[in-house]
Amino acid sequence: MSIWAFVWMAALVAVFIGTYLMNKHTPKPEGCEDMSECGGCNNIACTHHSAHHEDEDKDEH
């Protein structure tokens, strides 16, 4: 295997880590809604979907 494969892999990992850290430190825009009240789609796999929070709602009452 060529050394260039490792160089490309290291570069891609560095870009991923760099963009992740830049995104993490980006402030939330003004007027950004609270996603805990999201009910706009039927994507059950989304962690913001209300089906994932039914148990939490029962515990609060």
Describe the fold and architecture.
Keywords: Membrane, Transmembrane, Transmembrane helix. The chain is mostly helical and 61 residues long. It has one domain. Helices cover 48% and strands 0% of the residues. It has two helices and no strands. The radius of gyration is 20 Å and the shape is elongated. The mean pLDDT is 77.
Keywords:
61 residues; mainly alpha; 48% helix; 0% strand
Summary of the model, kept short:
This protein is an all-alpha fold and 61 residues long.
SSE topology sketch:
Elements: H1 3-24, H2 54-60
Largest beta sheet, briefly?
Answer: none
Q: Distance N terminus to C terminus?
A: 60 Å
Percent strand equals under 5%
Low-confidence blocks of residues: none
The outline comes out as: elongated
Proportion of helical residues = 40-55%
